[in-house]
Here is the input.
Amino acid sequence: MSLSHIDLTNPDHFVEGTPHEWLTELRNQDPVHWHQGSTGAAFWCVTKWEDLRYVSRNPMLFSSQRKGTNMPNPRMEELMRQRVESGVANPTMAAMAQQSEEGGGVFPIMLMMDPPRHVAFRRLVQRSFTPRLIEELAPHIRELARTIVDRVIEKGDCEFVTEVAAELPLQVICEMMGVPEEDRQEIFDLSNLMIGFDDPELGESEEQRMMASVGMFTKAMKVAELYRDNPQENLTSHLLHREVDGEKLSEMDYAAFFLLLTVAGNETTRTVTTNGMRLLIENPDQLQQLVDDPSRIPTAVEEILRYEPAVHHFRRTATQDTEIRGRKIKEDDPIVIWYPAANRDEEVFEDPQRFDVARHPNEHLSFGIGEHFCLGANLARLELNAIFEEIIPRLRNPEFSGPVRRLRSNFINGVKEMRVRFDPGKRLSE
Ligand code: HEM
Here is the structure.
């Protein structure tokens, strides 16, 4: 059994779609596989549902903090080392580089923390994401979704990613954070740069990604100025005024939260919305089921999440010698958990390669599980339901009117451009 033809480190292999054939080979032939990629990165690949759960639920054994949650990247590590050694980095960059050495990421974000620190940081924002609070946003989010579809409906054609899919999560998270309208486009551009670092069309290098983080840091500081002396009912005010372990957040910790919430709240939901629309266009019989009975949309949203998870993978690092499924893992070994692979595990899902909007039960892992279970899952589900409840009955007979252009990334399952044509209709609001 040789799996040496598989290379999950080169983003080129994700441009035509998630390489499900490779993930299936891994899952069936060597579910905890030591993978040596063409970029020089090497790590364990975890591809089964049960194992992804096991790793995610044991944060003290499989750390998010030790080396961060990004796939090992030899080029990035070298760049960081050079920056610090040569003293080229300005004070902010240097601090960020140091954080990176400690936490694997550019900022000390809670995604890359372990308990007990993670628990304390998460508590700070969890209160703003309870199901009850999110449910209170529902009427407003539905209204926004209606306006977004109104803006394109008369034209009968749109660039779906920017005109429809990106708008709702961007407006919602910016409103929740208290980001003024004039700053929202920049937040959108910066977060694109931060996740598009492997795509030459969006950003050319890790350097640019770093610069985007610096840009986001500057933006976070600008927004903080609005609420530091004048707190209001928004997340930024909460971050500035609530305390962790009896202390206010440092500037860096505040900026890290700002960055995590804006990026995580934007890219993922947009990606799922776009892939969902693509799947419905490609499977007209499935779309018809939802047109005939819109009460099935929530079930369909879960299937879209399962079939096309927004995030391909996250990484963990073993904190001691251990085993997964009998494979001997050494302390400090990188472990990469693959969501699209776990979501199509034959032992858990019947006919897993089939897109079935009526699938139930559907225990997909697209929001992760355990310690770092997606903070925004309730919000994302609300947004996805709201937008598809507008799209499905109103954008009738949709079809592609141009090529679907995917993001070159083995991290985000993104789409850059997708032109869609449909029967023109009437606006519903003024
Ligand atoms: C469909 C949309 C989304 C998907 C598929 C998604 C996916 C995920 C996944 C897989 C994780 C787990 C990371 C890990 O285990 O290391 C995560 C964590 C997180 N997500 Fe989401 N997410 C989505 C939307 C959102 C939204 C709208 C927000 C809003 C603010 C958000 C905020 C976060 C945060 C803050 C974390 C880190 C939680 C922690 O470290 O405790 N996500 N997300």
The two ends are 63 Å apart (CA to CA).
